[in-house]
Design goal:
Helix content is 42%, strand content 23%. A 5-stranded parallel sheet has the order 2-1-4-3-5. It is of the alpha/beta class and 149 residues long. It has one domain: SPOUT methyltransferase, trefoil knot domain (Alpha/beta knot), CATH 3.40.1280.
Length: 149
């Protein structure tokens, strides 16, 4: 299974890249996580950021918009989603907007809209949170002791 995190934002600080890469490396070979960056310098408006993000999505991808208007879920529910995505056999595209959020066209294209939290996070940190939560979801599915609930 392949997951692509498509995120609007400029080159992240080194600690963000290191943390994202650390969690992505922990995932098994059959579950890859790749980061696709949409530079804000080339896409200044929310509409142009949305257009560029949607160009990074393949027609057959299962698109999940990460947006504050979405439905929140806990780690166990994310694990259930991950299991469902895995069984579908499609690439999952997780979309993260810029400082102004996701454009309406992105939300329309999304197969589902998920809120990470009621809290607001810096966009760089969202990359790390998503990677860690995907790793946690995988550990839940595989019975690994990382998640102790």
């Amino acid at each position: 299974m392949k997951i692509r995190l498509i995120a609007v934002g400029d080159k992240p600080r080194s600690w963000v890249t290191e943390a994202f890469d650390d969690y992505a490396r922990r995932l098994p070979r059959e579950l890859s996580l790749d980061l696709v960056q949409i530079p804000t310098a080339k896409a200044r408006t929310r509409a142009s950021q949305g257009e560029r993000a949607l160009k990074a999505v393949d027609r057959q991808d299962w698109v999940v918009a990460l947006d504050e208007t979405g439905r929140s879920c806990d780690s166990a529910a994310l694990a259930a989603k991950l299991d469902g995505w895995r069984n579908e056999g499609r690439t999952v595209a997780l979309l993260v907007g810029g400082a102004d959020g996701l454009d309406a066209k992105v939300l329309e294209r999304a197969n589902e809209v998920v809120a990470l939290s009621n809290l607001t996070f810096p966009h760089e940190l969202v990359r790390v949170i998503v990677a860690e939560q995907l790793y946690r979801a995988w550990t839940i599915l595989s019975g690994h002791p990382y998640h102790r609930a």
